[in-house]
DNA sulfur modification protein DndE
Amino acid sequence: MIVKQIKLSNQSKDKLSRLKGKTGIKNWNVLCRWALCFSLSEETIPTDLDFPADSNVEMSWHTFAGENHEIYNALILAWCIKDGLPTDEETLAKYFKLHLNRGIAYLSGTNVIKSIDDLVNLALKKSQEV
């Protein structure tokens, strides 16, 4: 488990709220999974920013990752190894949070997403680029 609890910033909560409305996805954890994967697919290292945990949106690692928790662990670990970063618990947690927040910002910032179909099409486009 990379982190025990995930608590979002108010800014991320607001962005996810808008995405929930556009896509019809009702659960925070599902959108957070999309955001994490979208950020991990980018070639660059996320900017090292400090995100305050000042919202009321909080979930456990198991709520975030579900039955696929080992896959999300492996994705973060593989990403750190690929980019030559340490794989200690602190680094894994740090980059998990940075990727999650970058992914939320990217998904909410792309004026492309107006429905669930747009989200799926964006994912398909990204998968073809890889």
Residues 29 and 64 are 5 Å apart (CA to CA).
